[in-house]
Specification:
Length: 174
């Protein structure tokens, strides 16, 4: 009978005692093709969704990096930039290339990196949305170099990253 009592107590403990959270944050890498009709240029950004393991805090965030104002200056010199948060409706209309689970520590590192970019100047060829997303990819262990011929092609660049990291099982977009 003592064996039965021990099994019963163990079963009750599993049910009644607080369990470790089974939470997880997923990091998605997105691109937008650009549209003259929508007034948007080709773009890449990240989406974070899920919950933190440590606290269970719900996460539903996205971050992109862009010039603060569109002008001809963007083509020739550094201009003021900003971190841009997309509207949910817009996110659903973009290309999700790949998604990876991240740890709470990686989430915090990404948030810190986002804050570093807030006051950085935008440069179309040296410091744009592709470079921003490449840095986020590196934080989570994704090889994400930026070849010169892809620096202005966010969708093609994410296709390239997916190809160079086959473990991502990335979706290729035409």
């Amino acid at each position: 009978m003592t064996r039965f009592a021990a099994l019963l107590l163990a079963a009750l403990a599993c049910v009644l005692l607080p369990q470790a959270a089974l939470a997880q944050v997923l990091l998605s890498f997105q691109s937008f093709n650009g549209s003259m009709f929508a007034g948007r240029y080709p773009h890449t950004f990240i989406v974070l969704r899920g919950a933190l393991d440590e606290t269970g805090q719900k996460i539903d965030e996205n971050y992109g990096y862009t010039a603060r104002h569109v002008s001809l200056d963007v083509l020739s010199k550094d201009v003021p930039a900003m971190i841009y948060v997309e509207k949910p409706k817009y996110i659903e209309s973009t290309n999700r290339h790949f998604t990876v689970p991240i740890s709470d520590a990686q989430y915090r590192a990404i948030r810190a990196e986002v804050n570093l970019w807030r006051n950085e100047p935008y440069n179309l060829d040296k410091h744009n949305c592709v470079h921003f997303v490449a840095r986020i990819a590196e934080i989570v262990g994704i090889r994400a170099d930026v070849p010169a011929n892809l620096v202005r092609k966010p969708k093609a660049w994410l296709n390239y990253v997916g190809h160079n990291n086959p473990w991502l099982n990335g979706k290729i977009f035409d």
